[in-house]
């Protein structure tokens, strides 16, 4: 067994310790030029609370702007009623109308691109706000309307009580990246609400508000890609009093040993935990706070131990009893909610979505089967996939994947593979276990559940975590995404050498699954058993020899790296035994070709090099 060591910052997650890097930086090739990818409208504006101060940018002098030495309407903040950036022409759909603030940083689609580097753009209230004289206390929230999309941006909000020292109170890093691989723009408008009470000890007599933009990747500040922005629009800024009772779910999770699965083989069923992070953003302390879970309308009902949460505190609550599905094929729907003794003034911000998953016969899936975008890596090879915990020993035969088609899909003719690594629980080393034969993508391989058999099969062992990936050594591979993953559980390897390449975690879940189907491989006695091309490489005629154990029809096709077929041979009613056919390459261009031997619905692929 080949052992491959990946060394980096080590942390604990799921069953093991492993290394990780920051999320992947988007490249110019990932850029989406159209502004029509708005996400669903989800208003988080509090229904209660009194507005004590507001500004709708009708008076631009109410704000001071620091555009980091840049000049011109295409750089930094501007306040007017015209959309000045390259990405959107419509501006923000704010209720007040008139002026709004807009952040721009050049045009990355121009030739040459014009984005400014090493800039921090700031927009700040010109005068301090006297919250105390307005009848407010420290129990206030900052609310505003916004529109835009995130690429490699850090869009941040700050406050100050002295005009000198500044405290970050929020950002938009929770928003998905909009790129050619997927994601979405913000709702137009999106309402952002930030509770300022955790940052204020009393009602301030002077409070400044700042909106700030820079790159989210300061260590790559010389790379123009990190300074690309679609733009950021702000309008209708308010300070409102906080509600009396307001529990908010700031995070939630479910799964076995830290990983959640939407398809679980009967042999890998394990107890499932449920947790939620609950923030008390109201004025009053809250008692008898519980997380409640109901499975299939009463098949299982559980709650966390009741707890009290004081105002401005956050508690993590966990279901007191784990839920263990039966080891039989079935579908489960989980309903979750938060309850307390008081009536919540803003129930929308503690709502938890329902979860549906399935216990299956042999498929193990981290993705939710709802395709949304894809993972790619520009012009270079890469691997992408998910972690899987094994609870019972089993024979793993294949890795399943799904690749998008269409103009923005995977490229026909790209050679891909599937690969499995185990992870040493002590050292965090990645250990190569097995991989599939290479597959040259054909049109019928796209937008379908693609089964890639491992050679050899792998006896996966209980208590071990594995990383299943799909990869390519060249450009052209795109892997469909479906759902989201907790940080450091789904990955993109930027390159194909796990020692020297960079490993990024991604929060979109690649459609990369484990397949324990016992039927896989049983048809091999009726198929091609082995094949060899001699000589290889060759600059003329080469001979392909293959063996059949049973009589069958055989088709041999040769394609180049673009997927173009250069030779096709049909052989009917071949008997069992050894057969041969000439590969006539004399007139072909030098390079790599793929010889596909098809029999009884399966294909064996061999690589051939023309000198």
In short:
The chain is mostly beta strands. Helix content is 0%, strand content 46%.
Detail the topology: elements first, then pairings:
Layout: E1 3-4, E2 10-13, E3 16-19, E4 51-55, E5 63-66, E6 75-80, E7 100-105, E8 121-125, E9 140-148, E10 153-160, E11 167-171, E12 190-195, E13 208-215, E14 232-241, E15 247-255, E16 263-265, E17 273-280, E18 286-295, E19 300-303, E20 307-309, E21 314-318, E22 330-339, E23 355-360, E24 363-364, E25 371-375, E26 382-389, E27 394-401, E28 415-423, E29 430-436, E30 439-440, E31 450-460, E32 465-472, E33 479-484, E34 490-494, E35 502-505, E36 508-510, E37 512-515, E38 528-534, E39 541-548, E40 552-560, E41 565-574, E42 577-584, E43 591-599, E44 602-610
Parallel strand pairs: 16-23
Antiparallel strand pairs: 1-29, 2-3, 4-14, 5-8, 6-7, 7-14, 8-13, 9-12, 9-14, 10-11, 10-13, 15-17, 17-21, 18-19, 18-20, 18-22, 22-23, 24-37, 25-33, 26-32, 26-34, 27-31, 27-37, 28-29, 28-30, 28-32, 29-31, 33-36, 34-35, 38-39, 39-42, 40-41, 40-43, 43-44
